[in-house]
Specification:
With about 450 residues, the chain is of the alpha/beta class. Helix content is about 40%, strand content about 15%. It is built from 15 helices and 18 strands. It has helices at about 5-15, 20-40, 40-50, 55-80, 115-130, 145-155, 170-175, 190-200, 225-235, 255-270, 285-290, 345-355, 370-375, 415-420, 445-455, and strands at about 85, 95-105, 105-110, 135, 160-165, 180-185, 205-210, 215-220, 250, 300, 305, 310-315, 315-320, 335-340, 360-365, 380-385, 405, 420-425. It has a 7-stranded mixed sheet, with helices on both faces. Strands 5-4-3-6-7-17 form a 6-stranded mixed sheet, with helices on both faces. The protein has a 3-stranded antiparallel sheet with strand order 1-2-18. Helix 2 (about 20-40) runs antiparallel to helix 4, helix 4 (about 55-80) packs parallel to helix 5 and helix 9 (about 225-235) crosses helix 10. The longest helix is centred in the N-terminal third of the chain and has 26 residues, at about 55-80. The structure holds nicotinamide-adenine-dinucleotide (NAD). The site of nicotinamide-adenine-dinucleotide (NAD) has 27 residues, from helix 7 and helix 8. Nicotinamide-adenine-dinucleotide binds near residues 113 and 211.
Length: about 450
């Protein structure tokens, strides 16, 4: 089937109204959950063969989220999908006003490679729960996970409703020529711009979940040991190949030495290795070479060992880094952690503010005034105080970036909003007809209208 046919068939199916039925949507969610569960072992095998991601990590960072998202939609969809009454303004009385959530139509979802199941299937859950049809294009880079998702969906769902199309740049470029009702993209900011431009041709709404350099700020008034522990975990999970991983650390000069020792201690304690199932390979050789170029040997505080054959880069801390270093140019997206010290917090804040708005920011402090100042001063997608990355686990928090790090949100109800249109209706009876708005326009009518429209 060519892409034109796929979209045409999905449009026909959507226009048949079947996906608008809430019972139908819940049935599809239940089915998706049972299909994913049935494929669990195959999903673990595929992702391990792609980049040695363990069952433990795959369950805790991908599948558990997908199951939670499905369960949440199953439980809350009947309420979320209901039309909602709202107040009617005086000029419209007598009338009822309400908002009808409705699906957008045929949605294209493009996934990234670093959490291949989560970043493909989590938006799929939100899209079908909201009553849409879906064309999913997972990342081609982890080829086994892409293939297993294609099998999982294409063998269990009809292509008019949901289909996986595999491929890379070429295929995505062709897909983007189709007229979709929504494009949901997860990936890098440069490719996000390509997607946005393609969507603009058809005025297609987009959600762009992008990346960037997410800072962690460690002030002198915090629990340094716990902060180091939480940051080490967040940075080296998935070998740093996480969009919301702390990209670099800004630490108060006064506590830098002690903090670095804690960082090193926790890296040792956590014993990162493929054998311990708590570390993954760098996804491919291209990224391996890109990353080793970022390690300035003179600045290694800890780590630095690499093995091309195994696509392994040890958890590495760089110290005495400045904003002019190569490692500070772009998102690192690997297990390299630059530590920059500051002597003036205001100066550190400005360094962040004059760079592209980050996807995440992490603030480590026990000083309430400093916490509130940082939360107010710095613009970023989302984040945490005295922790890192855990905001993503709370589906009550809309997840997304701002500026260069993204456009729009999802997770939980935010996902429902991302894939819905909210149709606003004034519903009037015929039994009363105030004639104020109809010609002839008189001074008296204008006086009344001025009064009423203020209310
Ligand atoms: P990428 O932008 O290279 O690729 C993402 C998707 O776009 C893939 O499916 C790919 O096939 C497609 N693609 C790539 N080049 C294209 C082109 N020229 N035209 C059309 N389509 C193209 O991103 P990636 O390497 O898969 O993922 C890493 C990036 O994604 C990082 O920047 C990371 O921060 C970001 N990311 C963001 C989130 C988030 O939720 N905000 C989550 C994960 C990753």
């Amino acid at each position: 089937m060519n892409y034109n046919e796929i979209v045409k068939n999905q449009t026909d199916y959507f226009n048949s109204n079947q996906t608008k039925d809430v019972v139908f949507r819940i049935k599809q969610l239940v089915k998706l959950k049972s299909v994913v569960m049935g494929y669990e072992m195959a999903l673990y095998e595929a992702i391990y063969s792609d980049f040695k991601k363990s069952e433990f990590d795959t369950y805790t960072t991908e599948l558990s989220f997908i199951y939670h998202e499905i369960d949440e939609f199953i439980n809350k969809l009947p309420k979320w999908a209901k039309r909602r009454r709202t107040k009617t303004n005086l000029i419209n009385l007598p009338a009822r006003s309400y908002i009808i959530p409705e699906p957008l139509g045929v949605c294209l979802i493009i996934g990234a490679w670093n959490y291949p199941y989560l970043l493909s299937l989590s938006p799929v859950v939100a899209a079908i729960a909201s009553g849409n049809t879906v064309v999913l294009k997972p990342s081609e880079i982890p080829s086994a996970t892409s293939a297993i998702m294609a099998k999982l969906i294409n063998e269990n769902f009809s292509p008019e409703f949901m289909i996986v199309v595999e491929g890379g740049i070429l295929e995505t470029t062709e897909l983007l020529k189709q007229n979709f009702d929504k494009i949901f993209f997860t990936g890098s900011s440069p490719v996000g711009k390509i997607i946005y431009q393609a969507a603009a041709k058809n005025l297609t709404p987009v959600t762009l979940e992008l990346g960037g350099k997410s800072p962690a700020l460690v002030t002198m008034n915090c629990n340094l040991k716990e902060s180091a522990k939480r940051l080490v975990w967040a940075k080296f999970l998935n070998s740093g190949q996480t969009c919301i991983a702390p990209d670099y650390i800004l630490v108060d000069e006064a506590v830098k030495k002690e903090f670095l020792i804690h960082l090193k201690d926790y890296i040792r304690k956590f014993e990162y290795s493929f054998e311990n199932n708590n570390y993954v390979q760098i996804i491919n050789e291209r990224n391996f070479y890109r990353l080793i170029e970022l390690i300035d040997k003179k600045k290694i505080y800890y780590g630095g060992e690499v093995d091309l054959q195994k696509r392994y880069i040890a958890p590495t801390i760089l110290t005495d880094v400045t904003f002019d270093d190569k490692v500070m140019e772009d998102e690192i997206f690997g297990p390299i952690l630059p530590v920059i010290s500051y002597s003036d917090l205001n100066h550190a804040i400005l360094e962040i503010k004059y760079r592209p708005k980050p996807l995440a920011c992490y603030i480590f402090t026990n000083d309430i005034a400093i916490k509130n100042k940082l939360l107010k001063d710095i613009s970023f997608g989302g984040g945490a105080v005295n922790d890192a990355m855990m905001h993503i686990t709370n589906s009550n928090l809309p997840f997304g970036g701002i500026g260069n790090s993204g456009l729009g949100n999802y997770h939980g109800y935010a996902g429902f909003i991302a894939f819905s249109h909210f149709k606003s209706i004034i519903d009037k009876p015929f039994w009363l007809e105030p004639n104020l708005r109809y010609p002839p326009n008189t001074e008296k009518k204008l006086t009344w209208l001025k009064r009423l429209m203020r209310l």
